[in-house]
Write a structure and sequence with these properties.
4-stranded antiparallel beta sheet; single chain; globular; 81 residues
Length: 81
């Protein structure tokens, strides 16, 4: 299983931030990719859907953002098990 940190483009400030959410995937990519690139035309795994449903806090504006656009959400590989 591979562990990924979720990073997202912030609608409040326009930067990309880690969201403090993580997912474990059996067959995930070896490099950073958008959710759209990985699952284009397919249903998203439950873990990824759950992350998209939860807001994250922008470290610049302190506002809470929910990014549901799959081309604006990135899986960043952290480790392998």
């Amino acid at each position: 299983m591979k562990k990924y940190e979720i990073h997202s483009v912030c609608d409040a400030c326009g930067d990309t931030h880690p969201t403090r959410h993580h997912v474990m995937l059996e067959n995930g990519p070896d490099e950073t990719k958008t959710v759209e690139e990985i699952w284009e035309g397919q249903d998203l795994p439950g873990e990824v859907k759950a992350v998209l449903a939860n807001p994250f806090q922008c470290p610049v504006t302190k506002s809470f953002i929910r990014q549901e656009e799959t081309d604006q959400v990135f899986l960043v590989p952290l480790s392998y098990k």
